[in-house]
Amino acid sequence: LDNMLVSLQPTELQREEVVEEWEQIVYREPWSVRKSVFAPREKESDSKAFEVTNETVEKTFEKDWTRCVKQERFMSFLKRCNKKLKADGHSDNDIFKQLKQLLHSNYLMLDSCFTFFACLGSGSAFSMQLNEYTDFLESCMIPDPESAKCKRSDCDTLFITADFQEDKNSKEAKVADGAQALLRHEFLEVLVRI
Known about the structure:
It is built from 11 helices and 2 strands; from the N terminus they run αααααααβαααβα. By secondary structure, the chain is mainly α. The longest helix is centred in the first third of the chain and has 17 residues.
């Protein structure tokens, strides 16, 4: 180290070079959604707007609810669960209305959860695979290893139950394309079953 000599020599910046760099800056007009890649959304989306409208959310919820109640297994599950409440004088219709209202009042949040976790996977953004479903459950701290009916394996069984297609030729079955993944209405079914 003694025979090593370090020499630092300052260099002067030439003023002309700095000016040339500043002249190369291109000024653009501010970003606008109407001039972006999202511009077609205003004409092509269901809401005919850049944002999701309340009307679209209502329509989407009604479609999902209709798909849920069309499934014979889901309805028989609800009827089995309602036996105790029916003894107290509540009809199936009253209980279904209460469940529908509960899901409806939380639908925007549930839809956002579904979309977020569905997009984490390698499959379609319109379906939630088992790994993403498990991530959702863990994030919400739903599985309980000490529970009699809500262990992770029980939750996985609910995934399989909700993913079952009664009609293999239905639109839903074709959208799922044979993949083991939940569509949005099946996700609602799983939450009800949990």
